[in-house]
Fold this sequence. Notes:
The protein has 21 helices and 22 strands. Helix 8 runs antiparallel to helix 9 (208-228). It has 549 residues and is an alpha/beta fold. Mean pLDDT is 88; it is low at 268-293 and 335-340. A nine-stranded mixed β-sheet has the order 7-6-5-8-1-9-19-2-20, sandwiched between helices. The longest helix has 25 residues, at 160-184.
Amino acid sequence: MKQRVIVIGLDGATFDVMDPLLEDGQLPHISDLVNKGTTGRLLSTIPYSTIPAWPSFMTGKNPGKHGVFDFFRFAEGERRLTNSQDIHSPTLWELLSQHGKRSIVINVPGTYPPAEIDGIVVSGMLTPAGAQFTSPPEVNVFLDRVTGGYRINSRAHLSGRKLMEDMQGVTEKHKSAFIALLRREHWDFAMMMFRATDVIQHHFWQNHDTVQECYRHLDACVGEIVKAFPDAAIFLISDHGLQGQHRDFHISKWLIDEGYMSIRKGQTTEMSRWEEIGELEGRAELAEIYLHPSDVSRFLLGLGITGHKMRKLVPRRWWNALKRWTPRSVQAHVPASDDVGYEVDWEQTKASAYQMYATENKAIKIMNLDPPSRDRLCDELIEKLSSLGDPQTGAHIVRRAYRREELYQGPYVEQAPDIILDLHDGYNITNAFFADDYVTPRDQIRGCHHREGIFVACGDEIESGKMLPSYPSLLDVMPTVLHYLGCPVPDDCDGRVLREIFEPDSLPHGQRAVHEPVESKEPVQEGSAVYTDDEQAEIERRLRALGYL
């Protein structure tokens, strides 16, 4: 029988949330896949962030070989959003096309602009509003018809129940579009990536009911897909997991205090950020409070009374109660800070994480130094950060600080951040210049990324009821799918074929993987920008509203 594969991505899904729900029977469709298939925790890239994780999955290679390390890259002295043309290695669906296999791929981050393949690509996150997001172009008409108006993104700047309902609506559109395309088209490989688990857990980590509702909704979506295509093997994966962010590591403050980063009063103020956010639907009212303070706010500011100063004077327990019971209409009149606005003095800065990379990537760039000085500073920073303790608890903050050469191999290593941090559980970095200390506890716990994602494989010739004893890598999925579909694996893949997931007497288990050389894709000429300045600004505003910047 001809093999077909469906990969379902649940962005940020974690067994830490799923296991209790599985045990309680609340995820019946995923539970069925687990019982009939092979399961394990899936190790993401370092950093364990949407980008570079999904490009690494697509190629089976570390970022040093495919060239994408973050949401942003630096070209001709400017910070530019990365896009699909920055991925310099062939993707899974491009390789399948070369071997006569047809693919349908929907909503995977890093796929804009959509590539021309034997099949269909519908791009995902980082697609500008109004841009052509399908290949072939005419597919978008079909998507609009079957979904009542297709949407790529949720309005993630919404809050509370409105955000949850909007995310569910977008998820339904993605599921309906995916099933409709697979019923209409011939295909050998298909992939659908759902972002709801990532978005909802970031915003609602402490609200267990909302998080569990999100997982139950996605379980139903998984069930519909499996039921519609019972002959296909299913790979259920996530690019990383999620955890609670209990403490903030203000890395910019630490770099400033240690003399590595310099700031000055500048033109970029908190007001300008709220002007950006005010343009986003659902945040205009909140932005108005900051942009046009009331007479009461001006009076309090004149007296030097701000939320930041009050927080330092009031005991934490009382402060939390005060915030909980004070109406938002009253809170709105208390100015947050009397900070006049600072910016980085780049000429005097040796090391910075500020607005260079996404905060989840926990990366530091060295600047204004020659190569020997850069190497010495890397060693100095890694030594200090590796032993840095939490000023309140004494616990180590950094699990390990890596030089880029330790993590990555390939022709693009020098494009990587100089230092990448793997923090201990419960910590994440911020961009704050000023704080009570370089680590502070959070009043409200939010979700942040964890390295351990999920892996479930179920289908013909895949072992049933098996738990993998060791954690596979996210990079292993791509060569495993190629091998299962009878295609050769690139000989420079960093991932390996997971032969242990297949039944011992099956062909995929008994047959050695075939490896063949594959040429890298030619880099696109630097002058050919994919995003206009306005499009980049729009996407940066969206990323900032989501808390990614």
